[in-house]
Specification:
TIM Barrel, two-stranded antiparallel ribbon
Length: 261
């Protein structure tokens, strides 16, 4: 896989842009609303294959396979070895998939499982991220981190670990554009879905209302996607259940059907 890193420049107004010009023209400036072909992507049920579970020697081919099967949201898990034990990938992966995913009308959904994510938002936005989720547990400056994501022309996601009380989001409602509910403890792929997560999903849905996308991440497969959807989830991250299957495209379609996507 050839990694293409977008070179960033600064305009006279001080705004960071890639050499390709204005970043992600399918997103309205300021990150407050979606526009164009991608407007429905986070407003309808979607299964988001996670490249963390893919074969890194064939990432492009495997992303192409699931997108040909109907996937439009591609999920990228970023781990720093500090907030979570594992190390995964950085902005270079986002940059490598930028043209491929956006050229197919897709969306790059970045999940930062890293300490002090506000320090790294610019790099992931410049690489081509469309949405960036930060953990409420990862920084004392959550409002600032979410604001930084929006100012980088991305949709701001707030992520919540299983052990964090749902009330942690209450003072942040309005500051984020999507909510990510972890249904496993973060740190590595292939973990089983935490039983009883549906009650938590229902609670979070009540708190954020009907219109905010609610993403679930961890242990999502054909047996868990349906109950999570019934509880109020709309975006379903699936990694090993797709890329660990003999036929990733077929696995994607089966999970999408189970989720009603």
């Amino acid at each position: 896989m050839r990694l293409r890193i977008a070179k960033a420049v600064f305009t006279s107004a001080g705004c960071r842009r890639t050499q390709r010009g204005a970043r992600r023209p399918h997103i309205a400036r300021g990150g407050s609303s979606l526009a164009g072909v991608n407007d429905d992507l986070l407003n309808a049920r979607q299964v988001a294959p996670s490249v963390l579970a893919s074969d890194f020697a064939r990432v492009g081919a495997q992303v192409e396979e699931v997108m040909a099967a109907g996937a439009r949201v591609i999920h990228i898990d970023v781990m720093d070895g500090a907030f979570v034990p594992a190390l995964s990938m950085g902005p270079q992966m986002v940059s490598a998939l930028d043209e491929q995913v956006h050229g197919a009308g897709g969306w790059l959904d970045v999940h930062l499982m890293i300490e002090r994510p506000e320090r790294h938002v610019e790099a992931f936005a410049a690489a081509g991220a469309d949405s960036i989720s930060v953990h409420v547990e990862a920084t004392p400056h959550v409002h600032f981190a979410l604001k930084a994501v929006r100012e980088a022309d991305c949709k701001a996601g707030l992520a919540l670990n299983p052990g964090t009380t749902a009330t942690a989001i209450d003072s942040l409602i309005g500051a984020f554009d999507l909510l990510l509910c972890m249904t496993v403890n973060p740190g590595w792929g292939g973990q089983p879905y935490i039983a009883g997560s549906e009650a938590r999903i229902e609670d979070l849905r009540r708190r954020i209302g009907p219109d905010v996308p609610l993403e679930v991440d961890g242990g999502i497969d054909v047996s868990t996607a349906g109950p999570a959807a019934e509880a109020g989830a709309t975006l379903f991250v699936a990694g090993s259940s797709i890329y660990g299957a003999p036929d990733a495209a077929a696995a994607y379609r089966e999970i999408a059907a189970a989720a009603g996507a």
